[in-house]
Amino acid sequence: MELNQLYQLYLKNPEIETDSRKIKKGDIFFALKGPNFNGNKYVHQALESGASFCIVDEETGFQNEQVIYVEDCLQTLQQLAKKHRQQFNIPFIAITGSNGKTTTKELIHAVLSSTYKTYTTTGNLNNHIGVPLTILKIKPDAEIAVIEMGANHQKEIEGYCTYTLPTHGLITNCGKAHLEGFGGEAGVRKGKGELFEFLKKNTGIAFINRDYDYLAEMSSAISTVISYGTVDADITGREMKHTGEFLELGITKGTNIPEIKTQLVGGYNLPNILAAVCVGKTFKVDDTKIKAALETYTPSNSRSQLIEKDGNKIILDAYNANPSSMKVAIENFAALPGNKKILLLGGMMELGTESLREHESLVKLIDLYPWHKVVLVGNDFKKLPDHFLHFKNTGEAKAWYQQQHFSKAQVLIKGSRSMQMERVLE
């Protein structure tokens, strides 16, 4: 079947599903394949559950008009997303970066939604499957789209751009994340910089954090650059001194918003807030709406969440971790008020040959501060000679934590996604 024909079927049945267990009546099922699954084997289940059509790329035994054979299901899904994207003449804002991209995306979405019909990435749908699915969920009433792009190797962002066709782009930062796939920090900048390369070639607009010189350099060939940061930027702001857990900031240039009292933990969220202010002002969102959106936004999905449980104040930031985000989280936690601080840290993944060295650097950082207890979880931590508590997995750490019956303590829980450190609280 040709792409135009498939697109007409999609317009009549606009809900796409890639998991046969979640099929609803009328959905189009794409039989995607991966290392541990093959959707082609679940066509019968999808049809029984009410799928209107099944897109497959292997022989399934079905020969009816509901089962459509294509050469490659994933490529077809991405081509369909591009076809849909091309129907819109609205801003498409792409966001990537090593740290803070999901929070930044959520904050930008909150600000823009106060004024425009805005669609954005839900959950963690920011990969080669999630990005096209996000695009295909955009309805005709859309006025702006905000697309998050995750990546762990070269050419990945470049690939997303071919069917997302962003008009605007934002790279939060380029830190020590996915070093194994990118091939070091220089590789991270090159990989994330593929977004700016696309904007350069297509007369796009870049939002940059002026506090990072490398972002200014990476965006230097883009004709229109709008900046935010703590100094020398279009939108500037600073963290205000306070005694509470939540970030408060003052906007010093670019708006009439004197201060913003957020529900986010950590000064490391300052650039995320400033990015949202910058994007909001670019699209002429009223200052009062920007302030309200940012002050009422509450984090979820284990990202900078403040939880009060059993008489303890817990910062749950366990959605992901890399050397850069771990460092700022620990330093921020050390600076917060409290004299009974407990660290529960899970290992960092995808660091390749640098893994042991980066874990060792983290242990040295931890040693600079006084803690009530320090618990390190994962194999790389266990290989290091230090005086902290070590556990092989989160289950063991959970059992230990529950036996302590802590009260009036301050706890930071952080680790890579695969460590599932949030389970300590279950």
Describe this structure in words.
The protein is of the alpha/beta class. It is 35% helix and 22% strand. The protein contains 16 helices and 21 strands. It has a 9-stranded mixed beta sheet with strand order 8-9-7-10-11-12-13-14-15, with helices on both faces. It has a 6-stranded mixed beta sheet with strand order 16-17-21-18-19-20. Helix 4 crosses helix 12. The longest helix has 13 residues. The protein is globular, with a radius of gyration of 23 Å. 46% of the residues are buried. The model has no long low-confidence stretch (mean pLDDT 94).
Brief characterization of the structure:
With 426 residues, this protein is of the alpha/beta class.
